Each structure stands twice: as C-alpha cells, then as structure tokens.
Amino acid sequence: MNYADSLDRAIEALPERNEEQSRLSVPDPEGETDGAFTRLTNLGEIADALGRDVEHVHRNIQGELGTNGQLEDNRARYNGSFSVADFQAAIDEYVAEYVTCSECGLPDTRLVTEDGVDMLRCEACGAFRPVAKGASKTQTQSSGPAVEEGTTYELEITGTGRKGDGVAEKGKYTIFVSGAKEGQTVRALIERTSGTLAFARVV
Fold first, then answer.
1. d(CA 27, CA 109)
2. Among 77, 107, 132, 176, which residue carries the largest CB count within 10 Å?
3. In the chain, where do the E strands start and end?
4. Residue 173 CB burial class (10 angstroms; 0-12, 13-18, ≥19)
C-alpha cells in the first residue's frame, strides 16, 4: 500500500466532526455597575458556551482584572469599576489559555489533570499542553503594602458606595470613605479594616 492510500484510510478512520460545533460562539459580556462594584450578569452563559466550570472562569477573570470578587448564582461581582471591554479582554485571555488548541486553533478541547498538572487536550487533533498557572494580578497585589488602621492616606475617590460614602482603591483594598465624594482627592484616616475592605473618614 502506497503513502496516498495509507493517508486516505487514516482520514476515513477519523471520527466525523460537526464544523458548526467546532466554532466558538460566546455571548458578549453584560456588565452592570453597582456602587463600588461591577457585575458580570451573564457569566454562567459564557461559561456554558466555553464548556468550562463557571467557578474556574470566574477565578481567572478575577486574576486578569487584578481584583477580588464574588460568584452568586452564575452572576459575578467584582470590586472596582470595569467596562464591557475589560470583561471581554479577560474572557479573550481565558479562551486563549484554557479553551483554544494551540496546534489546530479549534475549541474542541478538555481540561484534565494528569499527575497533578492541568492539561489542555484537543479532541480534534490530539494535541495536548500544560496550561499556564502563573501568579495572577490579584496575587501580585496581595504582596503589596497593607492598609493599616490608624494611618492616614491620600486617596482618589473613584466611586460611591450604597450608603453614599466615597470609594477608593489602594492595592488590593476597597476603601469606603465617610464624607468624601466621587472625583475628590482626600486625606483619610483608616478606622477599621475587614479582609480586603477598609473604612475611613476624611481628616
């Protein structure tokens, strides 16, 4: 049997694949501002379209945005103000790393763990590769200086909280400043911290 015949037989043996299913159709992200937070209201639909666990997608979007957030019934809330373009860029990065095959460019892949290593296996061409697990932006921020109680900081107020307090960001912290308004730059005394939240007043 010559090479051409062998190739034809090998191609015939490959499973049929629906080309429509191989194309990735991901819903556009839908953002919604909520005081000092921004919601991604259709995260569950996006994760379903990608064929990935919604918690996994959420964690990686947090890392790309460099912030903290919460997952609530397939909707996500992230600390800070983000645009739809910000969400789209984070999702594009996720697709490139965790969905698209680097060999054939198709999204027909599975995330699997082999010997403790996360691998991306392509069901279309058989290629596989480890996925990157570098430090996220959130982790990088966490190594920065802490916001300390009893210390005064100069803060730029970039938002308004539910109770009308001004909201500022410093490293990994979201700071609610009593007596401050959006657009101001103020000196504020940190009165209390709780996790990555801090509460302050203008001095």
1. 19
2. 176
3. 31-34, 37-40, 69-72, 75-79, 109-114, 117-122, 128-130, 152-156, 159-160, 166-170, 173-178, 185-194, 197-202
4. buried
Per-10-residue mean pLDDT of the chain, 203 residues long, equals 54 46 79 90 95 94 89 91 91 91 87 82 87 50 68 90 81 86 93 81 93
Neighbours of 189 (CB within 10 A): 15
The pTM assigned to this predicted structure is 0.58
- Lookup: tokens for 61: 């979007």
Enter the tokens of residue 202. 């203008």
Residue 181 contacts by C-beta under 8 Å, 6 or more apart in sequence? 157, 160, 166
- Is the backbone of residue 29 left (phi > 0), alpha (psi -120 to 50) or beta? beta
Phi/psi for 52 (5° steps) reads -125, 160
- Strand-pairing partners, residue 79, are 37
User: What are 178's strand-pairing partners?
Assistant: 201
Query: Nearest-5° angle of CA 63, CA 116, CA 72?
Result: 40
The residues that bridge with 190 in the sheet, in sequence order, are 200
How big, in percent rounded to 5, are the helix, strand and coil portions of the chain?
30, 35, 40
